[in-house]
Amino acid sequence: MDKYNKIYEDINKDGINELIIILTKGIGTGILEQEAHVFHIQDQRINKEFVEVPVEVLVDDPIAIVLKNVKTELLSNKAIISIGEKKDVIDTKHLKIEPNHLFPDIYFGNLISFEINDKQLIAKIGGQISQASGSIGDIQITYIFKDEMYQAKSIEFKPNE
Description:
Blueprint: E1 4-9, E2 18-28, E3 31-46, E4 49-57, H1 62-69, E5 70-74, E6 78-83, E7 86-91, E8 102-117, E9 120-130, E10 135-146, E11 149-159
Parallel strand pairs: 3-8
Antiparallel strand pairs: 1-2, 2-3, 3-4, 5-6, 6-7, 8-9, 9-10, 10-11
């Protein structure tokens, strides 16, 4: 797997493609950690000439977004994820994880990926309830360019099929 992926796409809808670099910081068994770096291309005057210069724009940290907006509860046979008024209850019996192998709560942090879909920057943060085969689904954050940075436009939970 490449350590980074470069994408040119107009994700802020200004008619000019941005440079998006998705950097893979860590990968291994049960771990995928990526960061998104977005650069707006701006014309700047250098030595009496205008040149295009990439300027990095802040992308709000997906883990911080999850911590601020997602409430969770983990019981022996179910996981509960609440985002705003929406509550998802996931039956975890089929995973056959013994209660003493469960995490104290749903963990978000080992599986963080980014993608561009339909000209939108999207982060996916996997929710895990135990070390081994404990994935229950992803928090999906769709970003919007607002107040000079990319911040959460929508947050939703997508359970595993």
